[in-house]
Amino acid sequence: xxxxxxxxxxxxVKFIRDxxxxxxxxxxxxITAPTFKSLFGSLEGDALKTAPKGYPKxxxxxxxxxxxxxxxxxxxxxxxxxRDDLVDYVLEIAGAMKxxxxxxxxxxxxAPKADRPPxxx
Length: 121
Known about the structure:
The chain is mainly alpha-helical. Helices cover 50% and strands 7% of the residues. It has one domain. It has helices at 10-22, 25-31, 34-40, 62-65, 78-81, 86-110, and strands at residues 2-5, 70-73.
């Protein structure tokens, strides 16, 4: 199961980074919540090896700014899929994912739109 920004446009990436650089506290609060950490660990996704252009390498949120994708993921094992309470378990994961998914969706919605056609997937 996953939620977040998988292949954001360059405009969306810049908007997300600018938002994080200005105030990371809403995102930090979501991803450091005990339930989030226990189910998803840390955010996943492709990341730059160095600081993105325009951001100082010693920025306090460089770990989040280096990301090119912001994803919360939870792999389901065969044992998970065979659980008697599978539906409840999936709903628990989805419920824990929901605040993060809403936060990222809100950023993606507010990000400037590209002046070119969307790229093919």
